[in-house]
Amino acid sequence: MLDVADLNLGSGVRPGEAAAAVWDQFDLAATPAMFTVSATVVRLAGKGGLFRQEWAKTEAGRGGVLCDPHNFNRTWRDARGTLYHDVTQYTFLKTVATLISEASDSKTAARQLGSSREGITERHYMASPAQAPDSSAVLQRDSAGPADTVGR
């Protein structure tokens, strides 16, 4: 369970993508280490099971046991207890997006999460700042002009 949590928090992958991870998706010799997202775990209604869905096609998992993201979430809820009751798998996505956007920008955060649009990442995954940025230098510079500009 901690390995999946590490993967989620260290990369921002979705729970189903982490559950579908296999060793050939990792390049631990690269600097920095790389994880290639190439599949997700899905439950097909009426088919009675989980499938590792690759981007190009849907097929049953290739060996190994697939972890149902819903079961993982249930196990996660039990493990986090009441102290961390508000920490979900999507908390990891939000944390990754917020940290990257603060260090870089929202476009980079969106690319890390695999989002096609920056606005989705901003609305759903990035924390809003608790305090407005310091824009006093810009406001002071613009207010240095004529004092009678109000109402123009």
Question: Can you walk through the features of this model?
Answer:
This protein is an alpha+beta fold. Helix content is 42%, strand content 11%. The protein contains seven helices and five strands, in the order H-H-E-E-E-E-E-H-H-H-H-H. The chain has helices spanning 2-11, 15-19, 69-80, 89-103, 106-113, 118-124, 136-142; strands spanning 26-27, 34-35, 39-43, 50-54, 58-59. Strands 3-4-5 form a three-stranded antiparallel sheet. It has a two-stranded antiparallel sheet with strand order 1-2. A hairpin with a 6-residue loop joins strand 3 and strand 4 (50-54). Helix 5 (106-113) crosses helix 6 (118-124). The chain is globular.
Which whole number gives the mean pLDDT? 77
Quickly give the structural class: alpha+beta
Quote the beta fraction. 5-15%
Lateral strand order in the biggest sheet = 3-4-5
